[in-house]
Amino acid sequence: MPEKKINVGIIGPGNIGTDLMYKILKYSRYMNLKIIVGIYASSDGLKIADKLGVENSSEGIDALLKDKSIKIAFDATTASAHLKNATLLKKAGIRAIDLTPAAVGPYVCPVVDIAAHIDASNINLMTCGAQATVPIVAAIGSVTKVPYAEIVATISSKSAGPGTRQNIDEFTQTTARALEIVGKADKGKAIIILNPAEPPILMRNTIYTAVKEQKKDEIIDAVNKMVKKVKEYVPGYRLRVPPIFDEDKVTTMVEVEGAGEYLPKYAGNLDIETSAALAVGDLVAKRMLEKEARANEIDR
């Protein structure tokens, strides 16, 4: 465990922000959570932060900006709110890790392209559907060209809070673009289904890809290796249906079970987003600490 950590803050004490708070406090190696902020004093997330001994405020982003020690801010609000927050964070010199589908910064998936964007001032974690499916499309794309990728993300309606529902349009647009930009499919399409079944279902994502070549063994191997990589930071991520081959099409399904830190285990759609945020945040914080160490060595 490093002696020094990077001070970070969370904007948005809803389901995602609160779950992320639990994860940072419990698992982060390189981040120290200084504050979580919202706009409603009655927020359950702020009350929980108070019980956990985490500084909190209902003054919104202004309270976070007052703390000059904060180097990274996680935005767990909405796409429209992040468009405003991104400008304020950049002006303050605070790195933004965006858990909304605002798509201000580069699209990032921890196991696919974080190395290319680790120094970006704003990192966009795309959507939960993208975090679950882009790795599979990228794995298939590492073997053969993918002219088209389509994903259907099915989640429990109980795990879709007000923020998720407000961002449905942005979800489909951002996920589709992520399949193209990060997954490297020529064309991407995304569909989300809110399932009201009782008991609530786990998040399941069906991935359809058109492929240039049917390299079956290589595709199966690439998909299995990618699933293992994602499981390193999302333990509940698993291959539900291995690649099924039909002429020029490959169909795969992955399932995500939440860790149950704060959210129920069926809310894998939220868990994979906060798990990705934790993974990316620690990588960014580690990078910042390494840069500080090198600068100190030069000064000596």
Percentage of residues assigned to helices:
40-55%
Q: Which architecture name of the largest domain does CATH use? A: 3-Layer(aba) Sandwich
For the biggest sheet, the summary is: 6 strands, parallel
Under the CATH scheme, which class of the largest domain?
Alpha Beta
- Overall pLDDT metric: 95
Tertiary shape: globular
Q: How big a fraction of the residues is strand?
A: 15-25%
Which superfamily, in CATH terms, is the homologous superfamily of the largest domain? NAD(P)-binding Rossmann-like Domain
What does this structure look like?
The protein is α/β, with parallel strands linked by helices and 300 residues long. It folds into two domains: 6-125 and 273-299, 3-Layer(aba) Sandwich (Rossmann fold), CATH 3.40.50; 128-266, 2-Layer Sandwich (Dihydrodipicolinate Reductase, domain 2), CATH 3.30.360. 42% of the residues lie in helices and 24% in strands. The protein has ten helices and eleven strands. It has helices at 15-27, 44-52, 61-66, 79-91, 114-117, 128-141, 162-166, 168-181, 216-231, 268-299, and strands at 6-11, 31-37, 55-57, 72-75, 95-98, 122-124, 148-156, 187-195, 203-210, 237-246, 249-256. A six-stranded parallel sheet has the order 3-2-1-4-5-6, sandwiched between helices. The chain has a five-stranded mixed sheet with strand order 8-7-9-11-10. It is globular. The two termini are 25 Å apart. The mean pLDDT is 95.
Quick description:
With 300 residues, the chain is of the alpha/beta class.
